[in-house]
Amino acid sequence: QVQLVESGGGLVQAGGSLRLSCAGSGRSFSTYFMGWFRQAPGKEREFVGGINWSGSTTYYADFVKGRFTISRDNAKSTVYLQMISLKPEDTAVYYCAAQRTVGSGRYDYWGQGTQVTVSS
Q1: How many CB atoms lie within 10 A of CB 106?
Q2: Contact 38/94 with Cβ under 8 angstroms?
Q3: SS3 sequence, 91-106?
Q4: CA 54 to CA 33: how far, in whole Å?
Q5: What is the pLDDT of residues 55-100, one digit of tens each?
Q6: CA angle at residue 81 from 96 to 89, to 5 degrees?
Q7: Residue 20 parent element (H or E)
Q8: Is 107 left (phi over 0), alpha (psi -120 to 50) or beta?
Q9: 50 with 35: CB under 8 angstroms?
Q10: Strands 68-73 and 78-83
């Protein structure tokens, strides 16, 4: 069982930056593909990006390319989402999730989410 806890959300002005953290528990954390998702009010949850177990490969949704960077520190069982040049449309609850079987498309563990609000 893996528990994920996000932190680092908050209120920021447009153009600003935030770094979200996702702290995991469990000995298998370093083997999981990790994803970041977000859900804005009244909208479907959407994939923001992901990172493989070693951190050597990252994936991003087109709407965040060049602005968001995902990294991980397996020694700390933590995944990060660095966000720059934030826009009001980035306002959402951000979630991290762990995928036990790479390529399955299924995320087995989810955090509780952290709110990011970008003011114009």
Answers
A1: 9
A2: yes
A3: CEEEEEEEECCCCCCC
A4: 9
A5: 999 999 999 989 999 999 999 999 999 999 999 999 999 999 999 9
A6: 90
A7: strand 18-24
A8: beta
A9: yes
A10: antiparallel
